[in-house]
Design brief:
Order of helices and strands: HEHHEHHEHEHEEHEHEHH
Radius of gyration: 19 Å
Helix content: 25-40%
Shape: globular
Strand content: 5-15%
Strand order of the largest sheet: 3-4-5
Largest sheet: 3 strands, parallel
Structural class: alpha/beta
Length: about 280
């Protein structure tokens, strides 16, 4: 996401309008997890044109297939709508990162043929990443083996949801932590790359010490993938996402100690504050 009013005064200027914040976001970060398409479907043509105009050339939008296709229709009979979805995003063709297929929690191995049909139809120029949530895909049995083989065959990466930090402590009376723990699935973390752009979704805690402890193993893993000439994608969340940009910057700084990375630009809100 980038339209978040909570980031005024840090990532954005104090009086920035969230709807106009993509240029400031793209000046600092190089990709975004585009949840808007998951909930609302394909954006309007004029909206896509605005994004194409505002985003830097190096920037990558990582959208999700609409939930109407993945959850309501469960990937069945979605060919025309999927083609229309990709056609609508065509003006962003050179700035599309892995587009994600986030599957329902009860989408199991018996429905893998539907996923296979979608992957066979997937545009060859568009990276794909699949996020599964059914428990049978996390036991290293035949279901998970079949999934991983399918992804490798079609050059799709498996999204790795790392929620260990989020669930590191009981929520207690913290309603924000309670809600985040209800919404996010608690599944084992299996670290693997089935294609060339492994996607990691790190779901953090309010306690930064916990976040950094759980992130430490990713430093060597990210560096290894980059040394293998892969292009890992890291999305950073916090329970209410207010501190997500600050946490992402802290993780970037730690990664930069291990492997060469471009420096991040200053946050617009912090730069603004320094002028007063």
């Amino acid at each position: 996401m980038w339209a978040n009013a909570d980031w005024r005064g840090t990532l954005y200027g104090r009086y920035a309008e969230p709807s106009d914040s993509l240029p400031d976001y793209g000046r600092v970060f190089s990709c975004v997890e585009g949840n808007t398409t998951f909930y609302s479907g394909a954006p309007r043509e004029d909206v896509v044109a605005t994004w194409a105009r505002q985003a830097p050339e190096h920037f990558r939008f990582c959208f999700k297939l609409p939930s109407r296709l993945t959850h309501d229709q469960r990937l069945v009979g979605i060919e025309d709508e999927m083609d229309q979805f990709f056609e609508r995003l065509a003006p962003l063709h050179d700035r599309l990162g892995p587009t994600m297929i986030q599957l329902p929690r009860d989408f199991g191995a018996d429905e893998l043929p539907m996923l296979e049909a979608v992957l066979k139809r997937w545009p060859t120029s568009l990276p794909c990443a699949v996020e599964v949530r059914h428990s049978e895909f996390f036991h290293k049995g035949t279901a998970e083996q079949s999934l991983n083989r399918l992804l490798i065959t079609h050059g799709a990466d498996r999204v790795m949801l790392d929620a260990r930090a989020l669930f590191a402590t009981p929520a207690g009376d913290d309603t924000r932590l309670q809600q985040a723990q209800r919404e996010k699935p608690r599944r084992p973390l299996h670290v693997l790359s089935t294609a060339t752009q492994p996607v990691v979704r790190f779901i953090g805690h309010f306690d930064d010490a916990i976040n950094h402890e759980r992130f430490t193993p990713w430093i060597e893993q990210m560096a290894l993938w980059m040394e293998q000439e892969k292009s890992p994608v890291l999305f950073v969340h916090t329970p209410d996402n207010r501190a997500a940009p600050i946490l992402a910057r802290a993780f970037h700084a730690r990664l930069a100690e291990r492997i060469a990375l471009p420096a991040l630009a200053d946050f617009a809100g912090e730069r603004q504050e320094s002028l007063f």
